[in-house]
Amino acid sequence: GRRRREAAEEEVEETPQEKKLRLAKQYLEELRQLGESRRSRASPGDTGAQPAPCSLSRCRSQGAVLGCCCAWGRVLGGPAHLLLFLQVQPPDPARIRVLRGHQLPVTCLVISPDDRFIFSASKDGSLIKCKWEVDSGKRLCVVPGGKKGTEERHLGHASQVLCMAISSDGKYLATGDRNKLIMIWDAATCKRLHIFTGHRDAVSGLSFRKGTHQLYSASHDRCVKVWDVAENAYVETLFGHQDVITGLDSLSRECCVTAGGRDGTVRLWKIPEESQLVFSGHQGSIDCIQLINEEHMVSGADDGSVALWGLTKKKPLALARQAHGEQGTQGLQQPCWISALAALRNSDLLATGSHSGSVKLWKCGEGFRKLEHLLDIPLVGFVNSLKFSAAGDFLVAGIGQEHRLGRWWRIKEAKNSICIIPLKQKTTASSPESPGSS
């Protein structure tokens, strides 16, 4: 009876729509397992013919909640590729491209929705924001900045840039700095359009709600703010975290998720209801967070752990401890901090970064209840930012000699740079569209 009560307390109250989504996903997972068991029993002479396409009437006859897997994909706002499992081969080190231009550690980066451009920022006092062309590696635009107190004389930031975000239509770029400012840019021309003020401490997280120009921002002042970029307007402020907020992410729903540093919580903010759900499971400071799809997210902490979450559970579905190993001498060893995360949207592929000398790729297995390590990609330095391209054919890493949030120690042999890592993929299930699109 006690175990049943604990299980009931662990469950978060579901809306009818959330229950439908959960049941549909459970049904699809059962179909996947059935298909795998049939393939394992197939004889060596089998041709490996693909199963027949989904039939709405057939799925209904088998009790599907939402009709078929295609309907499930439409509910999520994208194609039915949740059952796509990616087999990623180790990239050839000679094909990893390194873009140099920032004098100080790269702190954040984003990729344009069409995968043609990369925007990056750093702790530089002179090269605050750069725009790069992916194909050629050329630096197309540099926005000069300055030192603190010289904001009026420079177009760019006058302090360290900690975060950035780009709208899903590629029109607006937002950057946030240690001096409490959020700057809005025209992504095509790199022209500054507006400055938002209102936070009382460093701006540490930014994200545009997908399909809109609504911007969410998080700060070390422990609050989340909502802005309307198209109207240059402030909307509202949400409170709840007990320590600095270190990361933020959002997708299509009118909500966002945040990492609360040393308050030990991850929070889901429901903007219209002005309510929040609280998740806990890490032992250290939670430094980064990323949504995988509308139902799952992943977070990383300085205790070296990576946690995989379902938005209807208060505890992690899977937890990888000391994901990047340990550092230090015998008896004084500490886990390597998780400093960056990336998820290929609506797929099972994750990437994590630390200062351990490599970026690790992971697979979400067993219906998002298991984290399976796939491979390591050698990179020297602090991995301060990671992003998958929308098509999933390359991964971009922002590298620095220091951690993006501080100067605890330096890795002198590291190069402050941006690394473009090609990913060779071999799929075991086909999808009509690329896994990163939606």
From TrEMBL:
One GO term describing the cellular component: small-subunit processome
Role description: Component of a nucleolar small nuclear ribonucleoprotein particle (snoRNP) thought to participate in the processing and modification of pre-ribosomal RNA (pre-rRNA). Part of the small subunit (SSU) processome, first precursor of the small eukaryotic ribosomal subunit. During the assembly of the SSU processome in the nucleolus, many ribosome biogenesis factors, an RNA chaperone and ribosomal proteins associate with the nascent pre-rRNA and work in concert to generate RNA folding, modifications, rearrangements and cleavage as well as targeted degradation of pre-ribosomal RNA by the RNA exosome.
SMART domains (UniProt xref): WD40
Lineage: Eukaryota, Metazoa, Chordata, Craniata, Vertebrata
WD repeats: 99-127, 154-195, 196-237, 238-279, 279-319
Quaternary organization: Interacts specifically with the U3 small nucleolar RNA (U3 snoRNA). Binds a sub-fragment of the U3 snoRNA surrounding the B/C motif (3UBC). This association with the U3BC RNA is dependent on the binding of a protein called 15.5K to the box B/C motif. The association of the protein with the U3BC RNA was found to be also dependent on a conserved RNA structure that flanks the box B/C motif. Part of the small subunit (SSU) processome, composed of more than 70 proteins and the RNA chaperone small nucleolar RNA (snoRNA) U3.
Localization per Swiss-Prot or TrEMBL: Nucleus, Nucleolus
Gene Ontology terms for molecular function: U3 snoRNA binding
Pfam families with a match to the protein in the record: WD40
Protein name: U3 small nucleolar RNA-interacting protein 2
Main localization category: nucleus
Family named by the database record: Belongs to the WD repeat RRP9 family.
Biological process annotations from GO: rRNA processing
Alphabetized UniProt keyword annotations: Acetylation, Isopeptide bond, Methylation, Nucleus, Phosphoprotein, Repeat, Ribonucleoprotein, RNA-binding, rRNA processing, Ubl conjugation, WD repeat
Ribonucleoprotein listed as a keyword: yes
UniProt-listed Gene3D superfamilies: YVTN repeat-like/Quinoprotein amine dehydrogenase
